[in-house]
Amino acid sequence: MKTQVCIIGGGPSGLLLSQLLHTRGIDSIVLERKTKQYVLSRIRAGVLEQGLVDLMEQAGCADRLHAEGFVHDGTLISYGQEMFRVDFTEHAGRPVVVYGQTEVTADLYAAREAAGGAIEFEVEDVELHDLDTDAPYVTYRVHGDDRRIDCDFVAGCDGFHGVSRKTIPTKDRKEFEKVYPFGWLGILSETPPVNDELIYANSPSGFALCSMRNDNLSRYYIQVSMYDSPEDWSDAQFWAELKRRLPADQVGNLVTGPSIEKSIAPLRSFVCETMRWHRLFLCGDAAHIVPPTGAKGLNSAASDVHYLFEALCDFYKGGSTARIDAYAQTALARIWKVSRFSWWMSSLLHRFPEQSEFDSRMQIAELEFLRSNRAAQAAMAQNYVGLPY
Ligand code: FAD
Ligand code: DHB
């Protein structure tokens, strides 16, 4: 088989890139290791920046997002019994949209299928070849058949554990990592959200987040030990711990119920600065991971897709390689700022194992400064709604 861009990974990055390229008549094939059902069963991000909403529009996939997404003009931050609000629209001129990654992915699959886009599921043993030549190709096995795709470029959209980044020789790869000593236990429950805006909570027992998917579907997270597994936490224990971490007046509004999903995500900051290696371009989690505090993972995947899409359009329209050559530098300039914001929010809101009384006072002082200072709120709001592309 032959295509212009071979895309490894059928998560949000790979699908969005494929659909955007399609709108400009650029051909791609997506290779996905799992089934579509499996990809759609992963509950992940829930907050979309305007930049991602715009890309979904450009891809012709934003109708359901506009109909069903919830526009949020601000967020609440609590510490102990105190709580304050940061207004996004006032300080940054834009809101965010609450719409699950699962729905984004489902909309993108629907669009690719409607357009007759090529997606191969359940591929195994994907290998990238001759990336440092003008004629790269990808080999893989699907349902026992060995296949080969010749292409102009390979887009590595296969997440943190994918094959693309690992194909870059170690000596050429520049990577940075920080692992946080805790995880997030998340549950989904068919209950009304405790509040109509998100609540990020710093408490002496650790971080908590109250989020949502719709009027009767809530998403809650609590900071847990990195050694815990979801089976260690009954629903009753989860709700008791969440209540301990929220201000009393919010606890009064909390409706509990059985969890319909429960999972633990580790927290990590990771950047592979080698986002381009000859004919391979890394996008999204394949190139970088942020801790989830601040909801930047999916959104920074989208900004990579934007830069790569524009670069490939230039190349196929007029043969210019200027934006292709600048891809890593352009994408990284934003990625490092997003990494800083996610690290800052994580540092502000979690309880660290080695945290001293002094460190806790510093967190409270920073929260009180944020609460009382418009410039600090503006800085947070501008980062939260998304830095410009
Ligand atoms: P992925 O979504 O990881 O997609 C990569 C795809 O590539 C997958 O479908 C995978 O099956 C496929 N793949 C992997 N290897 C291969 C291979 N060798 N061949 C073919 N296909 C392959 N972000 C937030 O903002 N908020 C959150 O609450 C949040 N929660 C998260 C919870 C978890 C458990 C994880 C892992 C991430 C979470 N994130 C969250 C981050 C966010 O979901 C990611 O940033 C986003 O999914 C990145 O999209 P992506 O397409 O780049 O990568
Ligand atoms: C969600 C996840 C986040 O990491 C975040 O900062 C906000 C919301 C969510 O899953 O809804």
TrEMBL record:
Q: Which UniProt keywords apply?
A: FAD, Flavoprotein, Monooxygenase, Oxidoreductase
EC numbers listed for it are: 1.14.13.2
Q: Which domain of life is it from?
A: Bacteria
- Tell me the GO molecular function terms: 4-hydroxybenzoate 3-monooxygenase activity; FAD binding
Any one GO BP annotation for this protein: benzoate catabolic process
Cite the Gene3D superfamilies for this sequence. D-Amino Acid Oxidase, subunit A, domain 2 (3.30.9.10), FAD/NAD(P)-binding domain (3.50.50.60)
Please name the Pfam families in this protein's record: FAD_binding_3 (PF01494)
Residues annotated as domain FAD-binding: 2-342
**Record's protein name:** 4-hydroxybenzoate 3-monooxygenase
In its UniProt entry, the species of origin is given as Aliishimia ponticola
Q: What gene is behind this protein?
A: pobA
